[in-house]
């Protein structure tokens, strides 16, 4: 790649590449468009403390770095990314630079923006944590189940590929089979499940002690075990077609995770190279190696992706993660492994399927 192609000055490119021998490509970048959120999830603190938005100029300034790092996919997240008034302009700018766009949204305003979102995003993932109004309200803090379902339907009707993501926890795990049914009814392309994170104090912008009673109890474990067995038997076709993103074996890791939080056995083994192929930039422009592990602060002036990834602190952080020295990894609910031989990051269903 020539200096002209990257848009970087010769000195800066040489310096950056010199220091990033272990990270020359970054197929996936997550941008938090805002810290603000219109949901009120009990597991999250963004909606309590979040203020900052990422602006269009900051995203424009990132383009040379995304090009230099051969980024293929940008995931727009937050907070609730659709609260950023510049989201359509940001998405248009990124799409115009041949980047695949993936939106992660609560879906609260998706009905209103369905047509535009369907035009701009390759995949839209909607978090849906209940299969009825009461469960949704208990977890997300809002009576908005119908509104979110309306958003999913509107986006699929507008031609978008919509996937549903469910965070399993005590209040909703009994609805496991109903989530699959609901995702079909809404016209979703896929449904995926992960365990609520109860072990990582940094996730979801938590600044206070995380004490919400969301993990499963000992009495819940055999119930979940039975639900998983029934799902494997009754939804064999959905596993086969990968309408359910995870394999039955991977879903059983959720059971193992909750059991481990209760002292019943080990946490499921983690295989993750997320920091080798992706990075997260928050709404203030700070870069982290993944969602759960905060990056160094103050080493690079944000937003400056390439430099932030190339600092000695960041390289050390990635080395520690590779070496299994970070406690967050041992209890991670969202580890990801991607074949380094893949040419570009893929998104949506294909992305999920590649995870172990
Ligand atoms: S978990 Fe997501 S949707 Fe819920 S309040 Fe936090 S940022 Fe918003
Ligand atoms: S296992 Fe989890 S905490 Fe560790 S690097 Fe991967 S995503 Fe981050």
End-to-end Cα distance, whole Å, is: 32 Å
What is the element string, with H for helices and E for strands? HHEHHEHEHEHHEHEHHHHEEHHHH
Q: CATH H level: which superfamily?
A: Aldolase class I
CATH architecture: Alpha-Beta Barrel
Quickly name the level 1 CATH class. Alpha Beta
**Strand line-up of the largest beta sheet:** 6-5-4-3-2-1-7-8
What are the distinct ligands in this entry? iron/sulfur cluster
Give the proportion of residues in helices.
40-55%
Strand content: 5-15%
Please tell me the overall pLDDT: 87
Notable characteristics:
globular; binds iron/sulfur cluster; alpha/beta; 356 residues; single chain; disordered C terminus; TIM Barrel; 8-stranded mixed sheet; disordered N terminus
Write up this protein.
The chain has 17 helices and eight strands. A hairpin with a 5-residue loop joins strand 7 and strand 8. It has helices at residues 3-6, 10-19, 46-49, 56-68, 87-96, 110-120, 133-140, 145-157, 176-185, 220-234, 236-240, 248-261, 274-277, 305-310, 312-322, 327-330, 348-354, and strands spanning 28-32, 73-77, 100-105, 123-127, 162-168, 190-195, 278-281, 287-288. The chain has a single domain (23-354), classed as TIM Barrel (Alpha-Beta Barrel), CATH 3.20.20.70. The protein is α/β, with parallel strands linked by helices. Helix 6 runs parallel beside helix 8 (145-157) and helix 10 (220-234) runs antiparallel to helix 12. An eight-stranded mixed sheet has the order 6-5-4-3-2-1-7-8, sandwiched between helices. One iron/sulfur cluster (SF4) is lined by residues 270, 272, 274-275, 290, 292-293, 321, 326, 328-329, 332, 334-335. One iron/sulfur cluster binds next to helix 13 and helix 16.
């Amino acid at each position: 790649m020539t200096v002209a192609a990257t848009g970087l000055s010769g000195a800066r490119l040489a310096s950056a590449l010199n220091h990033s021998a272990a990270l020359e490509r970054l197929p996936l970048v997550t941008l938090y468009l805002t810290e603000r959120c219109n949901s009120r999830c009990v597991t999250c603190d963004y909606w309590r403390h979040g203020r900052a938005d990422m602006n269009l100029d900051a995203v424009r300034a990132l383009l040379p770095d995304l090009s230099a790092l051969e980024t293929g996919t940008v995931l727009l997240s937050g907070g609730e990314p659709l609260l950023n008034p510049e989201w359509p302009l940001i998405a248009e700018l990124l799409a115009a630079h041949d980047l695949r766009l993936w939106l992660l949204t609560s879906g609260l305003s998706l009905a209103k923006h369905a047509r535009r979102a369907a035009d701009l995003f390759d995949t839209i993932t909607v978090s849906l944590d209940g299969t009825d109004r009461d469960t949704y309200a208990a977890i997300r803090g809002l009576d908005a189940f119908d509104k979110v379902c309306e958003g999913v339907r509107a986006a699929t009707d507008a031609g978008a590929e919509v996937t549903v993501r469910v965070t399993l926890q005590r209040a909703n795990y009994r609805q496991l089979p109903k989530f699959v049914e609901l995702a079909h009814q809404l016209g979703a392309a896929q449904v995926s499940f992960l365990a609520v994170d109860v072990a990582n104090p940094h996730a979801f912008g938590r600044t206070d002690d995380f004490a919400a009673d969301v993990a499963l109890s000992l009495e819940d474990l055999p119930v979940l075990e039975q639900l998983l067995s029934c799902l494997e038997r009754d939804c064999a076709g959905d596993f086969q077609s990968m309408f359910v993103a995870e394999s039955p074996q991977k879903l059983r890791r959720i059971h193992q995770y909750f059991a481990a939080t209760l002292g019943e056995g080990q946490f499921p083994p983690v295989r993750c190279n997320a920091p080798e192929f992706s990075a997260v930039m928050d709404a203030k422009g700070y870069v982290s190696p993944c969602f759960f592990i905060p990056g160094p602060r103050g080493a690079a002036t944000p937003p400056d992706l390439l430099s932030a990834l190339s600092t000695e602190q960041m390289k050390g952080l990635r080395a520690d993660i590779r070496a299994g020295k970070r406690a967050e990894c041992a209890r991670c609910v969202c580890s990801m492994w991607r074949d380094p031989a893949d040419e570009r990051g893929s998104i949506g269903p294909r992305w999920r399927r590649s995870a172990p």
